[in-house]
């Protein structure tokens, strides 16, 4: 039995949505994927070296465009560095509490080195390369997340590493050509923190057959709003706006509209930190032209 595993697994999305999928097609991997739940409360159980290595080799097995492998992973275990990272990502305490945080970076530094090593000029620094490297990093993160959850660990991605890119780069010693895209905090969940998978938009709202269709968008949004209001996810968590409305009327639609009515990072004390993200990305050695 894996140390620290909650013996009562959360329901999967298949069960939540009462999907009619034959048990023979619901593999262990699919149960892990459809049972995903972001965890933000961890106990002090350390992650064994072999467990961490299994997660990292899984991350490195993700697809990578043209086998360029234009990403890197920074493993942060040092307690003091975790505490500093927690502060840099908006004082998110669980980043300090969890035993490991992985930082996934878009990385063209190796590509520029290889071009010079082989006697070529590096001329691929454009928007496509930034997207390619960022997607490579994101795919590796997703593999790591699934691997961690399959081992009984909890995890949560940390997009706030993009709040202060220069300070993150300084803390992690990132050279030019390396940009922190997202983090992944990993640890054993504290007992009782699992609440089950979060409801999502209905399949028909996001899965389109052959061609895109927004024909039933109003029904999809209205139905989902009812589910989320009943779920109580946004109760007491309204994005500041005038006027505030009763929690019984505040659902996903209003929450999302308020969040997107201002630039990333959207809300809260870190609002507008990413207003100059283009400049930050270019200062790290990327071009997004």
In summary, what is this structure?
This protein has 289 residues and is of the alpha+beta class. The chain contains 12 helices and 4 strands; from the N terminus they run αααβααβααβαβαααα. It folds into 2 domains: 13-195, NADH Oxidase, CATH 3.40.109; 203-259, no CATH class.
Which labels suit this protein?
about 290 residues; alpha+beta; NADH Oxidase; 2 domains; four-stranded antiparallel β-sheet; 12 helices; globular
Question: Can you walk through the features of this model?
Answer:
The protein is α+β, with helices and mostly antiparallel strands and 289 residues long. It has two domains: 13-195, NADH Oxidase; 203-259, no CATH class. The protein has helices at 13-16, 28-34, 49-59, 79-88, 93-97, 109-117, 127-150, 165-172, 203-206, 217-231, 252-259, 277-283; strands at residues 71-76, 100-107, 154-158, 178-187. The protein has a four-stranded antiparallel sheet, sandwiched between helices. The longest helix has 24 residues, at 127-150. The protein is globular. 27% of the residues are buried.
Beta percentage is 5-15%
Strand order of the largest sheet: 1-2-4-3
- Figure out the total of helices: 12
CATH topology of the largest domain: NADH Oxidase
Number of domains: 2
CATH superfamily of the largest domain, please?
NADH Oxidase
Please state the CA-atom Rg, rounded to the nearest Å.
21 Å
Helix content: 25-40%
CATH class of the largest domain: Alpha Beta
| Mean pLDDT score | 91
Taken in chain order, the helices and strands follow as: HHHEHHEHHEHEHHHH
Outline: globular
Termini Cα gap: 51 Å
Structural class: alpha+beta
Q: What does the largest sheet look like?
A: 4 strands, antiparallel
Residue windows where pLDDT falls under 50 for at least 5 positions: 4-10
* Known CATH architecture of the largest domain: 3-Layer(aba) Sandwich
- Per DSSP E runs of 2 or more residues, the count of β-strands stands at 4
